[in-house]
Design goal:
Blueprint lengths: L11 H22 L4 H24 L7 H17 L4 H21 L2 H16 L6 H15 L3 H14 L6 H32 L6 E11 L2 E8 L5 E6 L4 E7 L1 E3 L7 E3 L5 E10 L2 E8 L4 E7 L4 E7 L18 H5 L21 H11 L5 E6 L16 H20 L2 E4 L9 H10 L4 E8 L9 E6 L5 H10 L4 H14 L5 H20 L7 E7 L11 E8 L3 H8 L1 H30 L10
Parallel strand pairs: 1-5, 11-12, 11-13, 13-16, 14-15
Antiparallel strand pairs: 1-2, 2-10, 3-4, 4-8, 6-7, 7-8, 9-10, 14-16
The protein binds zinc ion.
The site of zinc ion has 6 residues, from loops.
Length: 611
């Protein structure tokens, strides 16, 4: 303890006051350090222990979002005091175990430093009370924290081995052996990947020039979670999935973690993805671990400029198309994942303010039309620095798509009271992977992406509507590579992803929606120009449609590379016609859903059996 130095030149009154304060501060310490009887100490310890247990029960009863770090710390302090007052008490080991458990929980909530505190407390407990009933639990928990939360498989391996040697018959022994096996498998696969690495790494980057892992973003919906890893450049990576606990991991080679991400974890807890952890596992290798629950499948694809790895985790497919009445989703989850400001450009657009929300809207919609569709996401293609295709006189696809989207949204709100969500509401760039993720997060019923086509032959005109699938059509692949801003080779990689996931997608519904829109666009625009052709409903691997949980299509409403089409789209009347045609196409689709449901309910009951 430092001594209070008497400041020079201070008047007597102040010094006296200071002395009084110091005396007051000392009172509890003095009282505390007075030797009290053993029984008195036991009584105090028991009191503290019970009080701590009560506070802990209260905290457990508090909604998770309202639990504060200081509440945890207060409870931990009370448990620790039990040991301080009466280390000989039977409650001392109980209290240390409880304190360690609290730290364990705090690690999940408040960050890595509490994992260290948990380990220290477990170790202290084992050292001070080597015969307590907590001894094997404590060591097993230490190993688990080292493996799962601190991402330190080597150290965890040693601890599990120590555990098995000390407690071969513990109830955790089987699990410890399992964990050891997992670590071996992970190490072997990482070593194998590292062997393959040098020759590829040599071309990718000079040694020492590591690629930074800049950010992690995520969106969660009911049975779909998208995680995006933002990287400074292209990387080699190794992925895997291990059980108990179920987790998907990525080792990103020749990378380093940005300071904002270092040692960080994100609690997602959306029922599919529990947590994301990121750490530099060993020098130059970043490990990202996704702790999942009930995930059926996952897929990964990469996007360039800037390089991103997009991980989609999927749960069991939804049985119902109709959205159940559910509370409004909370603020976009991505905000939680984004360090302040560093990634402002990549943030999702705020929910639109123009269309009114829509309890009444849904109500009107349901009552007047009996439609099953309430919330529609309209995605104006491109935006910001991404202009899309540009017409002969300079009309840009990004401006066309935004204007048509606004017109269509207005019609949907006015005529159906539908709730409309835009992926962008102004001339900003929104990454493709954010767009479907938003639709899923909003639990939209339909997703429509609006684009305009382009061809090297200026005479080509017409309308195409796409849904997500693999294709062999070279023209469709070329279009996909343009709309995805991907090289053709990457589009082929994308086909593999799409092949893998289409069984989970709303394929049949999307095709129906595409058909409705295609027919309606053709019918409407042909009135304005006899030369417009229907190029049909097509399929292609569009990034913006990947992972959508709802029927989703991409409409190429015209060829902006054609002079006549450009003139048509440059006129407000032309764009209004496109919007009305899109509305009519969506309506046809919605009505077909509706009549299908009537068909079911209108079925005549079987005649009753005679008695
Ligand atoms: Zn486009």
């Amino acid at each position: 303890m430092g001594s209070v130095k008497r400041p020079q030149g201070t008047n007597q009154g102040t010094v006296a006051a200071l002395g009084a304060v110091v005396a007051l501060l000392l009172v509890p310490l003095v009282a505390f350090s007075q030797p009290t009887s053993r029984n008195e100490r036991l009584r105090i310890a028991e009191q503290q222990y019970e009080r701590a247990n009560r506070l802990r029960a209260d905290l457990d009863g508090t909604p998770e979002t309202q639990r504060k770090e200081k509440d945890y710390l207060e409870i931990v302090a009370r448990y620790r005091r039990v040991y301080d007052v009466a280390p000989f008490s039977a409650r001392a080991a109980d209290s240390l175990a409880a304190a360690a458990e609290m730290y364990h929980e705090m690690g999940k909530r408040f960050g890595e430093k509490y994992w260290q505190e948990a380990i220290k407390t477990y170790e202290f407990l084992r050292r001070e009370y080597p015969h307590s009933r907590y001894r094997d639990d404590a060591l097993f928990n230490v190993a688990q924290i080292q493996q799962v939360y601190l991402n330190d498989p080597k150290v965890a391996q040693a601890t599990y081995e120590q555990f098995l040697k000390a407690y071969p018959t513990s109830r955790h022994a089987a699990k410890a052996r399992e964990r050891l096996k997992e670590i071996e498998v992970e190490q072997a696969s990482a070593a194998k990947a590292a062997e393959k690495l040098p020759e590829r790494a040599a071309t990718a980057a000079a040694p020492g020039a590591r690629v930074q892992v800049r950010n992690i973003r995520y969106w969660n919906a009911k049975n779909f979670t998208r995680v995006v890893l933002d990287l400074e450049g292209e990387v080699d990576y190794q992925k895997g999935r291990v059980a108990n606990p179920d987790r998907i991991f990525f080792d990103l080679f020749n990378t380093e973690v940005s300071t904002v991400l270092s040692g960080k974890s994100f609690d997602v807890e959306d029922g599919l993805l529990d947590r994301i952890r990121v750490a530099e596992n060993r020098s130059g290798v970043t490990r990202v671990v996704l702790e999942v629950t009930g995930a059926e499948d996952y897929s990964v694809f990469s996007l360039p400029n800037p390089f991103r790895l997009v991980v989609d985790i999927r749960g069991p497919a939804r049985a119902e198309l109709a959205r159940k009445a559910e509370p409004e989703p909370a603020a976009p989850a991505s905000e939680k994942a984004e360090p302040p400001k560093s990634t402002a450009g990549a943030a999702l657009p705020q929910p639109p303010s123009v269309p009114q929300p829509t309890r009444e809207g849904n109500h009107t919609l349901t009552r007047a039309l009996g439609l099953k569709v309430g919330r529609i996401v309209i995605d104006p293609g491109h935006g910001g620095h991404d202009t899309g295709t540009i017409g002969p006189t300079g009309f840009m696809e990004k401006d066309l798509s935004l204007d048509v989207a606004r017109r269509l949204g207005k019609l949907l709100v006015e005529q159906f009271g539908a709730e409309v969500v835009y992926t962008r509401e102004d001339d900003t760039y929104v990454p493709l992977e954010n767009r479907t993720a938003l639709a899923n997060e909003k639990q939209a019923d339909l997703f429509l992406s609006i684009h305009a086509n382009s061809s090297r032959k200026s005479s080509v005109r017409g309308i195409e509507t796409f849904y997500l699938n693999v294709t062999n059509d070279p023209e469709a692949l070329e279009l996909a590579s343009r709309e995805n801003a991907l090289a053709q080779t990457s589009v082929h990689e994308l086909q593999d992803i799409v092949r893998k996931i289409t069984r989970n997608e709303k394929l049949a519904e999307s095709r129906e929606l595409a058909r409705g829109i295609q027919e309606s666009l053709y019918k409407e625009l042909r009135k304005r120009s006899r030369e417009i052709k229907s190029r049909g409903v097509k399929q292609a691997p569009f990034v913006v449609l990947i992972g959508a949980n709802m029927p989703s299509v991409l409409a190429e409403v015209a060829f902006l590379s054609n002079r006549e089409d450009e003139q048509l789209l440059k006129s407000p009347q032309g764009r209004q016609a496109v919007a009305e045609a899109l509305l009519a196409g969506m309506t046809d689709y919605m009505k077909s859903l509706n009549s299908a449901s009537f068909a079911r309910t209108d079925e005549k009951p079987e005649p009753p059996n005679p008695d």
